[in-house]
C-alpha cells in the first residue's frame, strides 16, 4: 500500500481507542504510529475551529502527552509518524489512545474531538530462531488482522448502542480523571448487608437506593441502577464525570462507583436528615422544626450551590429539576443539591438549549415547560419556588387557600399586591423571626419567578441579595397578568387534570408520592437518591 493511502481514512473515538496485539514473542519491538488530521480541515470555515488533544500510552506507559496532530505535523492533511520502542514480556502489546478532557468538545460537532489514528505498524527488533520466523510473522499478521476486524465490528456495535460491557465501561471510567474512587461489588454488598430491605431508603426509575456502612465506619448511600434503566454506557460515564467534577459544600458528594457485569452502582455521601421536602412538610413523624436562622442558612446554601453550578464550575450545568425533594440535609442541616440525572451541560456556543421537557410541574419555568426553552434562568425560577416553600413551610403544589388560587406562588403574588407579605411567613415561627430577612427572601423569590427569564437575576446576584449585600429590586408584576397569561393557564389545566386522577389513600397522604405523579416526560424519578420510604431510618 502506498503510504499516502494510509491517511485517506482513520479511526476516531470520543473517549479512547485501545489496541491489543496478542501471541507475540517476548522481546523488543518498534512501534510506529501514523497520524494525519483529516477531520478538522483548515479551510477557515466552522470546521477549522476544532482542536484535538489526546494522550498515547504503550504498555501502560505515557509516551505522548497532550498530543496535537495539527501542531506536530504543522498543518492539517499532513502525515506525521511517531516511532517508539516497546518491550513485550507477556506476549501482549497494548496501545491506547485516550482523550484527557482537553481541546474542543463540541466543535464542529459532538464526538469528533477524541483520539484519531490512521495506521499502526509493529516490527520485532530480533530474529526468531530456526525456521519458525515465517510462521510467527504469518501468525502475528493473522492475529492483528483478526483483532482489527473484531475491534471494527465491536466499535460499530458500541457506537450504535447495541452493546455495552463491563470492560468498556470500566476502561472508560478508569481512563477519565475522576475525583472519585472505585468500589468492588463485595464492598457494596457487605456495606448494605447484602442489600437488606431494612437498609432500603429509596426507589427511583433508575433503581433502588440503600443505606450502607463501609469498614472504616463511613455511612454511604448506594444508588443501584437497575438493568431496566435506559441509562446506557455513555450516559453512565457522562453522569459519573459530571458529578465527580462538581465539588462544592452545597452539592452532594459522589464517593465513587462500582461496575459488576450489568450492575452499576453510584456511592454517595449519606444525608442524615433526608430531604428538605420531608423536613418542611412531611408527616408529623418526620417533620423538623426550623427556626428562622436555619431557614435563612438553608436558602442561602442552596443559592450558593446553584451559583457554583451555573457560574463558577469548570463544567457549567443547568440542573433542570431544582425542588425541595432534591435538596438533602446533612447532620448539621446543611443543604446539598442532589439528583443530576436530568442535568444538561451547557455548550458555550449556545445561549439556550431547546430540549425535551423533563422536570416537575410546579417548579418548572413557563418557557421551559411549554416550549422547551432551557437556560440557567429555568433553574433560577425553580429556586424561587423553593425559597417560597422555605418561608411558608408549605408545598407549592399543595397549598390552595381557596379555589381562586392554584399554588403557593399564586397566593404570594396576591399578597404582594395587597402589601401583606408577612401573611406568607410560616405561622409556626410566630413572631420569632427577622422580619427584614423574611421580606427580603420573599421579594427575591418573586423576582426569581418572574415569567420573563430575562428579568430573573443570576444566582450569584441572588446570593448577594439574600445576604443583604445588594438591594432587592421590586418585582412590580401584576398577578392578574401572571394568572391569565396563556402559558400559566396551560400549567393550571395540566395540574387540574392531575388532581382529578384517582389516588390511593397512601398516595394522597404522602407528599413524595403525589409529587411523583406530577412528572412530565422525565428520565429520572423525583426520588432517585432519597427517599420514597419515609419510614426508613
From TrEMBL:
It holds the Pfam family Malectin. GO terms for molecular function: ATP binding; protein serine/threonine kinase activity. It catalyses: L-threonyl-[protein] + ATP = O-phospho-L-threonyl-[protein] + ADP + H(+); L-seryl-[protein] + ATP = O-phospho-L-seryl-[protein] + ADP + H(+). InterPro entries: Kinase-like_dom_sf, LRR_Rcpt-Like_S/T_Kinase, Malectin_dom, Prot_kinase_dom, Protein_kinase_ATP_BS, Ser-Thr/Tyr_kinase_cat_dom, Ser/Thr_kinase_AS. The chain crosses the membrane at residues 136-159. GO terms for cellular component: membrane. CDD domains: STKc_IRAK. Keywords: ATP-binding, Glycoprotein, Kinase, Membrane, Nucleotide-binding, Phosphoprotein, Receptor, Repeat, Serine/threonine-protein kinase, Signal, Transferase, Transmembrane, Transmembrane helix. ATP binds at residue 224. Residues 195-472 form the Protein kinase domain. SUPFAM superfamilies: Protein kinase-like (PK-like). It is found in: Membrane. Its EC number is 2.7.11.1. It is a single-pass type I membrane protein. Signal peptide: none annotated. This is non-specific serine/threonine protein kinase. It comes from Fagus sylvatica.
Amino acid at each position: 500500500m502506498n503510504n499516502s493511502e494510509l491517511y485517506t481514512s482513520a479511526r476516531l473515538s470520543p473517549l479512547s481507542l485501545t489496541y491489543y496485539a496478542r501471541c507475540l514473542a517476548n522481546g523488543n519491538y518498534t512501534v510506529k504510529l501514523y497520524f494525519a488530521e483529516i477531520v478538522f480541515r483548515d479551510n477557515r470555515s466552522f470546521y477549522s475551529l476544532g482542536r484535538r488533544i489526546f494522550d498515547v500510552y504503550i504498555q501502560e506507559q505515557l509516551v505522548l502527552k497532550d498530543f496535537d496532530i495539527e501542531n506536530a505535523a504543522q498543518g492539517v492533511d499532513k502525515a506525521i509518524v511517531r516511532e517508539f520502542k516497546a518491550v513485550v514480556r507477556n506476549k501482549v502489546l497494548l496501545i491506547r489512545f485516550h482523550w484527557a478532557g482537553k481541546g474542543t468538545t463540541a466543535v464542529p460537532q459532538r464526538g469528533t474531538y477524541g483520539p484519531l489514528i490512521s495506521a499502526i505498524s509493529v516490527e520485532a527488533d530480533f530474529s526468531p530462531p530456526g525456521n519458525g520466523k515465517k510462521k510467527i510473522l504469518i501468525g502475528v499478521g493473522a492475529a492483528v488482522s483478526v483483532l482489527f476486524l473484531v475491534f471494527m465490528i465491536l466499535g460499530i456495535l458500541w457506537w450504535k448502542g447495541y452493546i455495552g460491557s463491563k470492560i468498556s465501561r470500566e476502561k472508560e471510567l478508569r481512563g477519565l480523571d475522576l475525583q472519585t474512587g472505585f468500589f468492588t461489588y463485595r464492598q457494596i454488598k457487605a456495606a448494605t448487608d447484602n442489600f437488606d430491605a431494612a437498609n432500603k431508603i429509596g426507589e427511583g426509575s433508575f433503581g433502588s437506593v440503600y443505606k450502607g456502612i463501609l469498614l472504616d465506619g463511613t455511612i454511604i448511600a448506594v444508588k443501584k441502577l437497575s438493568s431496566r434503566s435506559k441509562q446506557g454506557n455513555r450516559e453512565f460515564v457522562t453522569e459519573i464525570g459530571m458529578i465527580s467534577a462538581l465539588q462544592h459544600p452545597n452539592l452532594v458528594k459522589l464517593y465513587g462507583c462500582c461496575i459488576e457485569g450489568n450492575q452499576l452502582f453510584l456511592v454517595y455521601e449519606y444525608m442524615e436528615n433526608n430531604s428538605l421536602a420531608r423536613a418542611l412538610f412531611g408527616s408529623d413523624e418526620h417533620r423538623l422544626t426550623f427556626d428562622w436562622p436555619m431557614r435563612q442558612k438553608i436558602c442561602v446554601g442552596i443559592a450558593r450551590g446553584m451559583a457554583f453550578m451555573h457560574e463558577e464550575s469548570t463544567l457549567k450545568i443547568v440542573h433542570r429539576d431544582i425542588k425541595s425533594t432534591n435538596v438533602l440535609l446533612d447532620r448539621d442541616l446543611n443543604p446539598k443539591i442532589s439528583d443530576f440525572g436530568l442535568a444538561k451541560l451547557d455548550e458555550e456556543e449556545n445561549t439556550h438549549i431547546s430540549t425535551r421537557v423533563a422536570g416537575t410541574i410546579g417548579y418548572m419555568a413557563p418557557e421551559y415547560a411549554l416550549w422547551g426553552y432551557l437556560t440557567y434562568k429555568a433553574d433560577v425560577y425553580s429556586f424561587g419556588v423553593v425559597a417560597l416553600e422555605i418561608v411558608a413551610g408549605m408545598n407549592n403544589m399543595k397549598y390552595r387557600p381557596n379555589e381562586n388560587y392554584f399554588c403557593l406562588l399564586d397566593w404570594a403574588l396576591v399578597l404582594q399586591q395587597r402589601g401583606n407579605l408577612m401573611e406568607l411567613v410560616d405561622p409556626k415561627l410566630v413572631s420569632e423571626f427577622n422580619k427584614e430577612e423574611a421580606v427580603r427572601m420573599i421579594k427575591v423569590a418573586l423576582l426569581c419567578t418572574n415569567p420573563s427569564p430575562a428579568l430573573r437575576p443570576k444566582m450569584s446576584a441572588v446570593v448577594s441579595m439574600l445576604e443583604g449585600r445588594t438591594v432587592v429590586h421590586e418585582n412590580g408584576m401584576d398577578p392578574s397578568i401572571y394568572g391569565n397569561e396563556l402559558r400559566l393557564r396551560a400549567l393550571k389545566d395540566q395540574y387540574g387534570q392531575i388532581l382529578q386522577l384517582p389516588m390511593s389513600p397512601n398516595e394522597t397522604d404522602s407528599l413524595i408520592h403525589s409529587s411523583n405523579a406530577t412528572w412530565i416526560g422525565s428520565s429520572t424519578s423525583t426520588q432517585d437518591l432519597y427517599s420514597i420510604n419515609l419510614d426508613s431510618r
